[in-house]
């Protein structure tokens, strides 16, 4: 489109060549958006497979309702208790639901980010520069809103299957979890069982969407911005080192920004009776547990963990997903993000 705008021709034949080239370029871009969606889904499924044990422990931490200052909720303490009482297989809890969630959620929020970035840039006639943070935030917000809303049922199933049940896991598989949650809502709303079931599957969608927007703007935009800055200043060149460095910063930013909303989301999704909604959950946490409860499950300090692997689930997930995303793009012949 831009090349067509820059070329001035008088011959009808030359104009036809320019138009055909422009259309071919547009068709190629559309196919690349589809490949980017697939690459985002596969890379995030890979990241979820790697980080699932940490994710399970994080969920267990966030579901514990302890008083401020109480002990016994440290990352390693919770993990040790899980393995001792439930076995190593407990660290794989909710993995199928997590994989299903990543296809929809991350496929959309990361896979369509550049599509919305390009679309908004064209719609603004270039008034929003591609290097600017405003365009990136807008694109990430739209992509995350769509992805978070569509993937909420899978997200809810993942949380339910990762929670601790003293009498044993009530769900035989992810599909039985969907059915159980749907019936739960249908029973509570006998006058409109279908609507009640759907409402229950979308329980916590407000927190999920808000978290998705915060996570995506802080994660995707920071990765994009840090990578762009390091390349522009000649500090690093395209490659594994740049991808790792950018993802480390992105993981740190999104972990700090999204953890409070993540705690609320997990509590509301796993709850059946206690909370009336998102704001009621926030109020209850503040009153009974204090503000630090919003950072349960954050993990070890990043300054100490960079030498090995960050214990923050989002940190591990972010590093693996972006490195895999860039690698898959390269294999598919797509330019780097």
Structural summary, described in words:
- With 337 residues, this protein is mainly alpha-helical.
- It has one domain: Mitochondrial carrier fold (Alpha/alpha barrel).
- 72% of the residues lie in helices and 0% in strands.
- It contains 14 helices and no strands.
- Helix 2 packs across helix 3, helix 4 runs antiparallel to helix 7 and helix 11 crosses helix 14.
- The longest helix has 52 residues.
- The chain is globular.
Question: Which key phrases capture this entry?
Answer:
membrane, MCP_transmembrane, Mitochondrial carrier, Mitochondrial carrier fold, 337 residues, mainly alpha, transmembrane, repeat, single chain
What's the CATH architecture?
Alpha/alpha barrel
| Envelope shape | globular
The residue ranges in which pLDDT falls below 50 over 5 or more consecutive positions are 1-10, 15-28, 300-311
Largest sheet: none
- Give helix % range: over 70%
Total domain count: 1
Q: Can you write the helix and strand succession as a string?
A: HHHHHHHHHHHHHH
Mean pLDDT: 80
Strand content: under 5%
Query: What is the top-level CATH class?
Result: Mainly Alpha
Radius of gyration: 22 Å
Structural class: mainly alpha
CATH topology: Mitochondrial carrier fold
Give the name of the CATH superfamily: Mitochondrial carrier domain
Measure the end-to-end span.
Answer: 20 Å
Oligomer: single chain
Find the count of extended strands (DSSP E, 2+ residues).
0
Q: Give the count of helical stretches.
A: 14
Membrane topology: Multi-pass membrane protein
Protein name: Mitochondrial carrier
Subcellular location: Membrane
Main location: membrane
